[in-house]
Specification:
This protein is 33% helix and 24% strand. It is α/β, with parallel strands linked by helices. The chain has a single domain, classed as P-loop containing nucleotide triphosphate hydrolases (Rossmann fold). A 6-stranded mixed β-sheet has the order 2-3-1-4-5-6, sandwiched between helices. It is globular and about 45 Å long.
């Protein structure tokens, strides 16, 4: 299908990746933590007048800097790198994860979005400020947004923002292909 998009949600264990996906796909939130091995959710999203079938891949948490396998790199149109604003360690591991992702993609440019989850927490619980999130996004050359899977605030915007980036990238690739020629 022309309007099918595959998105992958990556980040450390326990940062709320599955909760963000669950909130987006089903508008529900569960307080209990249940580690994910690999999940694939399917949702239809209409943006900018077009309907998209989105396959959202939710693999197990990436707690180390091991190589990312083909199950999270082949056929993926965009990535959401999630950390918890309440857990500095989940934030600090993202540059390494992003680096591994770039290596696994062999330099291919794939839209990626940095997301600080649990933004509904109080300032005394927050270990990563909005400014630090924006700064890391700038360093990684990707956009930064925050959301709360618990309240739902900002969750839809995460997926809409990434999907728009994916669509721009796909449109750019089509234009680039239109200008290719060979001389014999």
């Amino acid at each position: 299908m022309e309007n099918r998009r595959t998105l992958a949600v990556l980040g450390a264990r326990g940062v709320g990746k599955s909760s963000v996906v669950e909130r987006f796909c089903y508008n529900r939130f569960y307080d209990n933590y249940n580690p994910t091995i690999m999940a694939m959710e399917h949702v239809t999203l209409k943006i900018d007048g077009k309907q998209y079938q989105c396959d959202i891949m939710d693999p197990a948490g990436q707690d180390d800097f091991s190589t990312l396998g083909p199950n999270v790199t082949i056929g993926v149109h965009g990535y959401i790198l999630v950390f918890s604003v309440r857990e500095r360690g989940s934030f600090e591991m993202l540059p390494g994860l992003n680096s591994n992702l770039l290596v696994a993609l062999s330099g291919q440019k794939v839209p990626t979005l940095l997301v600080g989850n649990q933004s509904d927490c109080g300032t005394n619980e927050r270990q990563v400020s909005v400014e630090e999130g924006k700064q890391l996004g700038k360093e990684l050359k990707i956009n930064y947004v925050e959301c709360s899977a618990k309240s739902g605030e900002g969750v839809k915007e995460v997926f809409v923002t990434l999907l728009r980036d994916v669509n721009r990238t796909i449109a750019d690739e089509v234009v680039d292909e239109g200008f290719k020629c060979s001389i014999s």
